[in-house]
Design a protein that fits this description.
- The complex is a heterodimer of chains A (about 110) and B (about 110).
- Chain A has about 110 residues and is mainly β.
- Chain A has strands spanning about 5, 10-15, 20-25, 30-40, 45-50, 55, 60-65, 70-75, 85-90, 95, 100-105.
- Chain A is built from no helices and 11 strands.
- In chain A, a hairpin with a 6-residue loop joins strand 4 (about 30-40) and strand 5.
- The N and C termini of chain A lie far apart (about 35 Å).
- Chain B is built from no helices and 11 strands.
- Classes of the chains: A mainly beta (about 110), B mainly beta (about 110).
- Chains A and B meet through strand 5 and strand 9 of A and strand 4, strand 5 and strand 9 of B.
């Protein structure tokens, strides 16, 4: 079983749609959690950290369920510029990156 | 300039040649990492380092050598390049805190003919 598993997609959604990505991790000792964004042929960049109580940053909401070892990312009111690959990341020193979920937002 | 840089950005080499990819960070981060990313696939960890003179193997270390004599530099050497090592190589650095994010360099696109 992979340490971090994500649905690879691709997710193709129209502008304005709400889309949710899920991620599961296998190591209960994981200490911190993140979502990264990677644009085509570019380096990954931090989108947001994920906190136990859940957190929101504008149109993006991240949730963590430690009991189920599950992380989610919700994107509301999708924009064309949200098209990218979203990586779920779990820190069990060193960080473990999921393979990513590809999102395409269409006009 | 502050940040994390990689050189060269693009490299074409031939099978059997030795190639060194450079990585430099200006934050004095303790941790540094090397990943490879093949077209259409996820990141795979090659080697990482927790501090100067401390290195550990990642998921795919075979065919690669690293060193870390200074905190700010973490070169990756392909001792005898093979076509299967054609990939994009990303270097990253991270502070010591559990919640610290990893910062990535812009990547080196390596082609082995």
């Amino acid at each position: 079983r992979k340490e971090v598993e994500q649905d690879p997609g691709p997710f193709n959604v129209p502008e304005g749609a709400t889309v949710a990505f899920n991620c599961t991790y296998s190591n209960s000792a994981s200490q911190s959690f993140f979502w990264y964004r990677q644009d085509c042929r570019k380096e990954p960049k931090l989108l947001m950290s994920v906190y136990s109580s859940g957190n929101e940053d504008g149109r993006f909401t991240a949730q963590l369920n430690r009991a189920s070892q599950y992380i989610s990312l919700l994107i509301r009111d999708s924009k064309l510029s949200d098209s990218a690959t979203y990586l779920c990341v779990v820190n069990i020193s060193p960080m473990r990156f999921g393979a990513g979920t590809r999102l395409t937002v269409k006009p | 300039d502050a940040g994390i840089t990689q050189s060269p950005r693009y490299k074409i080499t031939e099978t059997g040649r030795q190639v060194t990819l450079m990585c430099h960070q200006t934050w004095s981060h303790s941790y540094m990492f090397w990943y490879r990313q093949d077209l259409g696939h996820g990141l795979r960890l090659i080697y990482y380092s927790a501090a100067a003179d401390i290195t550990d193997k990642g998921e795919v270390p075979d065919g690669y050598v690293v060193s870390r004599s200074k905190t700010e530099n973490f070169p990756l050497t392909l001792e005898s390049a093979t076509r299967s090592q054609t990939s994009v190589y990303f270097c990253a650095s991270q502070g010591q805190g559990v919640g610290d994010e990893q910062f990535f360099g812009p990547g080196t696109r390596l082609t082995v003919l």
